[in-house]
Amino acid sequence: MARRWTDIALTALAPATWGTTYLVTAELLPAGRPLWSGAIRALPAGLLLLALTRRRPRGVWWGRAALLGALNIGAFFPLLFVAAYRLPGGTAAVLGAAQPLLVAALTVALLRERPGRPALLAALAAPAGVALVVLRPGAGLDPLGVAAGLAGTAAMAAGLVLTRRWGRPDGVDTLAATSWQLVAGGLLIVPVAAAVEGAPPVPDGPALLGYAWLGLAGTALAYVLWFRGAALLPVTRVSVLGALSPLTAATLGWLVLGQALSPTQLAGFAVAVGAMVLGQLPGRAAPGDGARQPARSRRQSPAGTSVATPSGSAPGGSSAAAARGRVKRCAAAGAAACDWSNSQRTSSTVQPSPARPASSRTSRRPTRVSSS
After folding, report:
1. I need a labelling partner for 331 at 20 to 30 A (CA). Which of 64, 65, 119, 307 fits?
2. What's the rounded Cα separation, in Å, for the pair 75 and 189?
3. If DSSP states are collapsed to H, E and C, what string results for 217-241?
4. What is the DSSP string of 228-290?
5. Per-residue model confidence as pLDDT tens digits over 175-199
6. Alpha-carbon torsion (343, 347, 348, 354), positive or negative
7. Contact 88, 203 (CB under 8 A)
8. Could you tell me the pTM of the whole model?
């Protein structure tokens, strides 16, 4: 139990770190260069992890790494910035907070897992809480901005579920797998940034600090923790933790920029935090949950040694052999010693499901938030 909550806490550090993106971007980075900021954030971090791990994709993983990098980085970053520029920050954040609902749907479609009731309730409550925190009266709904926000959210939701479905190649750790995605995603953003924004910006001292923070903490470390969590925890539980990103951004706006938090916003905080806690509670067992391990029972072998077997299965995995053994024992003991109806009910072997591998300087103004 303690280990599970440690994994949850480490995973939660990722969206909490992403919540610093707006403050760092607005206060330290050059104005009007969001695509280059995304490329500079992803590509150097990926190359650094690649140099440390010295592992390259092999075989089918060239295509998988490229697709995951496109979904989690290459498509998500540009779509996020389009939404942020065309929508009020609060509206964009609420669209991002809808990710758990998309993850729940994709979990059923791609992983054949049915999320538990706590996860579904959390997926509904988290966006509502975030909306109370970040939405302002008169928030605009630009159609292109909404489409970009939803597309970006869907891209990262699909990337999260596929990360869980495919796992990692044998012998490859999370650092190496993350490096592949960051490099692939960064390489996809560079030509788009060059076509839209021209040459990359020349950073000054504050910008270097901002890029360093976003690249090392907000990307390299945060994505390693995020993908680690996706491999260890049910993805519905991981996705609901994403609400920490806009909540962190709003908190920093209050602490650093002096932006006020109304009673309604505080109520939204309570709802969102409660949803995240609810989302981590175990739900009713559902078939195919890769995070669960088959129950084990202790059985006594004829020699008196204790043998661990999946509940309801025979040692050695042969139900036919077990049935023959029961027939011989009954023949020796007499018909009265055998309850045939009970033996037939308990003789079926339950096979455990295989586990899946596992922008300008800002002053006091309404908080805008970024989901990564």
Report:
1. 307
2. 8
3. HHHHHHHHHHHHHHHHCCHHHHHHH
4. HHHHHS-HHHHHHGGGHHHHHHHHHHHHTS-----HHHHHHHHHHHHHHHHHTS--S--TT-T
5. 999 999 999 999 999 999 999 999 9
6. positive
7. no
8. 0.70
